[in-house]
Predict the structure of Regulatory signaling modulator protein AmpE.
Amino acid sequence: MTLTIILICLIAERYLLDRRDLRTNRWFYSYNQWLERHDLPQALRQGIIGILLLMLPPLLAVSLVQHLFEETLFGLIWLLFSIMVLLYCLGPNDLDSQVDHFVEAVDNEDENEIRTIASAIIKDEPPTSEPARSQAVAEGVLLQANQNLYSVLFWYMLMGPLGSLAYRIATWLPAMEQSNQDADYYLNSRQLVTILDWIPARITAFCYAVAGSFEDALYGWRSYHETRFSEFADSNSGILICTGGGAMRLTTLINEAHEGVQSYSFLAKSAMALVWRSLVVFLVIFAILTFSGLA
């Protein structure tokens, strides 16, 4: 059933639905503001206790729905609820569309649009020159695919809707108002995301390797541990970028583009193609585990 729900959601996400505005997290921010107005003791609002207190009620609500409706109408209500939750947790941005818009902006030489889209993918201010900018966007695609897609699917496979929602809420926490006011809260929320991403990031990196150049991906993995460790904020991003970059032979593509004097924007398209091929590998592995009774 889990595999069926995942396939339904991925098909709907890719081909049938274009209502990503419904994935707004305004309800969570409103709930957080309501909690803040109750002037809870400082000890209950800071650190890991504050994070757990914020996450617990929505997750308890999902657990309650499961308890009440899991067997109702032969599980149909729970099936529909599971599909809705998983669809909500995917994304929220469509990386494929973002990459298409980035390439289009580069072709049109629209610097403002290029900078806006690149910033959205990289989650930071992009470089101003090529090939550094297109390389950063390609690496951003490899990195964001994990949080937008693979980690959500992993936690859904492990814990159902509860797992996918818990992961999605965790990714919102570093952007909460408390994170701007309390450095410890921000660090704890970032650490929580890093912990939740640890296993999925390595599964994603493995899928990148299988779907791309396996030898170059292994070289990228080794180079991260041996020489590039200090370049990245955490091991998850380092492994995803180094392994994914190796799998798509990013350095070779940059050199070939330079020799051919052509636009570097195709690097983002190559990264997105690797993500889609890796998703197929990811699903095939899970299908094998499912049909063999191991998942």
